[in-house]
Design goal:
With about 220 residues, the chain is α+β, with helices and mostly antiparallel strands. The protein has one domain (about 65-220). About 25% of the residues lie in helices and about 15% in strands. The protein contains six helices and eight strands. A hairpin with a 6-residue loop joins strand 7 and strand 8 (about 185). The longest helix has 18 residues, at about 105-125. The N and C termini lie far apart (about 45 Å).
């Protein structure tokens, strides 16, 4: 694919012209008791409090983000697109209680999602040139920050955690299509190939409530 720039400039951060602010998020029960609170969450300045609360409470990874990572080199893969994993040598010099933490910035989420999508696209041969891959990643990061586009919730939760931080977990019974063989395989990792789907389409003439529709699955 050839990808053109609409919102970003080559060799400039997609966040260069976006203002950010640090803010607090607090969610309370009707009786006033605090359900969730977080401070110093960095988000685009024009985001509403509701958007901030959803990001802070639901989408930021709360634990397991390493304080230091190192790239995992791969043949024919640009250095800027390499996946990363915890760096044990650097982490050895970090106090044990500070070696992992959670995400605190919206840009961390934008970067891991757009980075993972671009990485998968590169591995599948989608881009004509490296510049197209860079443009794809930059445009996505800008659009996420400006709320021009957004994926469904499981993408925010899971996508890019393995690529950006080396976070992994036991398989959860989902499958994926190997783009190089066209075969369906069972995943052996919860995060390397996550299943970030919120809906399941049965056919092109899918129906929600009528006979043969998705809700029929409840009573079959």
């Amino acid at each position: 694919m050839r990808i053109s720039r609409h919102y970003t400039k080559k060799n400039q951060s997609p966040y260069q012209e976006i203002e950010f602010r640090s803010a607090s998020s607090e969610i309370r029960n009707p009786d006033g008791s605090v359900v969730f609170s977080a401070e110093d969450i960095e988000v685009p300045d024009n985001w509403s409090q509701v958007a901030l609360d959803v990001l802070a409470q639901k989408y930021l990874r709360k634990a397991g983000v390493p304080a230091a990572t190192r790239p995992i080199p791969e043949q024919d893969l640009p250095e800027w697109l390499t996946a990363r994993k915890p760096d044990p040598e650097k982490l050895a010099h970090v106090p044990r209680e500070s070696r992992t933490s959670g995400e605190t910035k919206a840009t961390q989420v934008f970067d891991r999602m757009a980075g993972a999508w671009t990485y998968w696209g590169w591995k599948a041969g989608y881009f004509d040139q490296e510049e197209d891959a860079q443009t794809f990643r930059d445009e996505l990061r800008y659009m996420l920050a400006k709320q021009i586009a957004a994926p469904n919730s499981p993408q925010w939760f899971n996508t890019g955690l393995h690529w950006a931080y080396g976070i992994d977990g036991p398989p959860q019974g989902h499958f994926y299509v190997d783009h190089s063989t066209g075969k369906v395989n069972q995943s052996n990792s919860a995060y390397e190939r996550p299943q970030p789907h919120a809906c399941f389409i049965q056919s092109v003439d899918d129906d929600l409530v009528n006979n043969g529709g998705i809700m029929d699955l409840w009573v079959r």
